[in-house]
């Protein structure tokens, strides 16, 4: 069964490609390499022994998307990761986010709706909840006004997919995940952002290795246990496995509805200072950091109620916060030793 993975050379995408290949799926990757590298293919092959088909393609080019599906008419499922994903950047450059995250989704769905049947897994986000009123947040929580253009693109994306499934042969699962971290146990693939990291853990590991002078902690006056923001940090391999299980659910027609939604997280919230402490414990070194002003678009707290995914998908996380951070640190050390 041929599966298209958009953004398949990115952090979550590459780990999902590995898990798909482990389960016997034939994978085609589309990536424009804007925040990834073709070198990731070597890591995937080192782990699985299989070279996935790769096409460098910008999904914002509608004609290229149409041409791809003409040449690969036997694609039966799509896992759609390709998107810009930094909250802060989206606030400063909203049109980039609307073009890249909305137009590309529309072009993919336009091709899939021409098929009699198609399966679609959407990389959504806990940002759709905004600042939820209660924690942990479950899938029935109301979707609040987005606090950033990035979050808004995920809300709009979910609405578009919901509307399209009503009038097409597309079946979809929306995976709202929290904060992916870590690296594959082989240390062949991991998170390697281009430029300054927009996420906490790669900034921590780059600071730990000496690439960054110090970490900025955005605010210590939030109403949390230590004043810093709280998030749910999930190991990327646990997350990747959930995508495969979700795809298999659609392929085997186990889905109850045309569109289903699942939270993917650990169910535990960790503050920024707790993540720093976990890094210091696993690395055996102090991390230089400073407290700075709050960052626009950040919610106070976000962690998942995972009962639905646990019970219906039969999926749950396996790695602890410390194990996840240890894997990220080992990956960082390997990458910088080259």
UniProtKB/TrEMBL annotation:
Needed co-factor(s): NAD(+)
Catalysis: reaction(s): UDP-alpha-D-glucose = UDP-alpha-D-galactose
Keyword line: Carbohydrate metabolism, Isomerase, NAD
Similarity comment text for this entry: Belongs to the NAD(P)-dependent epimerase/dehydratase family.
Organism: Flavobacterium zhoui
InterPro entries linked to this entry: NAD(P)-bd_dom, NAD(P)-bd_dom_sf, UDP_G4E
This protein's name: UDP-glucose 4-epimerase
Residue ranges of every copy of the NAD(P)-binding domain listed in the record: 4-326
Family matches, as Pfam families: GDP_Man_Dehyd (PF16363)
Pathway recorded for this protein: Carbohydrate metabolism; galactose metabolism
Keyword Ribonucleoprotein listed: no
Organism placement in taxonomy: Bacteria, Pseudomonadati, Bacteroidota, Flavobacteriia, Flavobacteriales
EC number: 5.1.3.2
Subunit: Homodimer.
Keyword Isomerase on entry: yes
Molecular function (Gene Ontology), one example: UDP-glucose 4-epimerase activity
């Amino acid at each position: 069964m041929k599966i298209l993975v958009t953004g398949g050379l990115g952090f979550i995408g590459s780990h999902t490609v590995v898990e798909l290949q482990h389960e016997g799926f034939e994978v085609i990757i589309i990536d424009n390499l804007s925040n990834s590298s073709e070198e990731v293919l070597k890591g995937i092959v080192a782990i699985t022994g299989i070279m996935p088909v790769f096409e460098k393609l910008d999904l914002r080019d509608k004609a290229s998307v149409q041409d791809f599906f003409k040449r690969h008419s036997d694609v039966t499922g799509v896992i759609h990761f390709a998107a810009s994903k930094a909250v802060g950047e989206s606030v400063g450059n909203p049109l980039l986010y609307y073009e890249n995250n909305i137009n590309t989704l529309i072009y993919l769905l336009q091709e899939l709706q021409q098929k009699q049947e198609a399966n679609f897994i959407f990389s959504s986000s806990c940002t759709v909840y905004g600042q939820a009123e209660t924690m942990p947040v479950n899938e029935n929580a109301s979707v609040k006004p987005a606090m950033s253009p990035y979050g808004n693109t995920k809300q709009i994306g979910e609405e578009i997919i919901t509307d399209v499934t009503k009038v097409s042969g597309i079946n979809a699962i929306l995976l709202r995940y929290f904060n992916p971290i870590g690296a594959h146990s082989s240390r062949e693939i991991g998170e390697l952002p281009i430029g300054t990291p927009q996420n906490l853990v790669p900034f921590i590991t780059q600071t730990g290795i000496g690439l960054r002078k110090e970490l900025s902690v955005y605010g210590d006056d939030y109403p949390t246990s230590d004043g810093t923001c709280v998030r749910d940090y999930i190991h990327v391999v646990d997350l990747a496995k959930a995508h495969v299980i979700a795809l298999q659910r659609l392929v085997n027609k186990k889905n109850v509805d045309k569109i289903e939604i699942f939270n993917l997280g650990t169910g535990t919230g960790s503050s920024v200072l707790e993540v720093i402490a976990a890094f210091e414990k696993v690395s055996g070194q102090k991390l230089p950091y400073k407290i700075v002003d709050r960052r626009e678009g950040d919610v106070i707290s976000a962690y998942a109620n995972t009962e639905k995914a646990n019970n219906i998908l039969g999926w749950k996380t396996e790695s602890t916060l410390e194990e996840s951070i240890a894997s990220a640190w080992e990956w960082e050390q390997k990458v910088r030793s080259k």
